[in-house]
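Might I ask for a little of your time on a matter of protein folding? Here, with my thanks, is the record as I have it:
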Amino acid sequence: MSFDHLPPLDPQRLRERRERVFLVMAGLFLGTLAMLNILGISRFIALASFTPGEAGTWTWGQWGEVSFALAVGVLPYPITFLCTDLISEFYGRRRANFMVFVGLILNLWVVFILWIGGVLPVVPTIETATGLPAPDDPQYAFYAIRGLAFGAVGASMIAYLVAQFVDVQLFHYWKKLTHGKALWLRNNGSTVVSQLVDTVAVILITHYYAGALPVVEDRPVAGQLMVFIATGYAFKLLVALVDTPVVYAAVALLKPYLRIDPAEVTHDGPVDPLLVPAAGAVVSAGLAGADAADRDGDSRGKRSVWCDD
């Protein structure tokens, strides 16, 4: 794709522009992760409940015999998949995978701060029955959030790693299969599978490891877990469908702004504009590909700014 119709742009300015956009998307991704791991299962939102019977009654916004609920941490989570899809589209698989790895380190950092914050003096008296300070203790809120966050992070770290890597790999599989076309397919195809993996893993680990799901003890657990999985997955699918036009709009706006054609982005990302020979030290066209020698690997001689070998 040629950008000849656009005004010339200094390579250094173009590189800074690309890095700023990446920083915004990576910041949104990592900030969302930190937020959802702290607030993740601190509250469950009851969307609706169903009471079986001859008539079968539905009640909205209340708990019931069969309740459809979402953890508050689920609300912003689909944004992380939108960010990885856009970064994969414009910056390549290597950078997307690295950001997923940084997200894991961030999870561990959150756990460390919560842990050390709870062991430094003065530690309050912990009640054996609840594992928390007395409700009237000023530190009660911190220890309550700390306990819930430990359970949420343990579950989410495993699910997060698997789901995000699945999302990145499938996104690039569909991109290669369609030769860079059918953005809707790789956006939704990768997200649909990865969100299912994430939802199943989070629900099962949160229940069996953290014991933090609001299940009713005198009812079959399997059915309740299936309802939690179905509710969470349905919400994520709905968001995935809604964000498809958002992805198309973002790609349409970012293509000319970044001077990147996603169809020509390699595994290492777009070609570094500072490494592309250009008369008068300006670039006006074709920086997305610049005759990349290997669109699935390295671009010999015209390397990505992200290629670190």
Notes: Confidence is low (pLDDT under 50) at residues 278-302. Helices lie at 11-39, 78-119, 140-177, 183-210, 221-258. The domain at 21-254 is CATH 1.10.1760 (Arp2/3 complex 21 kDa subunit ARPC3). DSSP finds five helices and three strands in the chain.
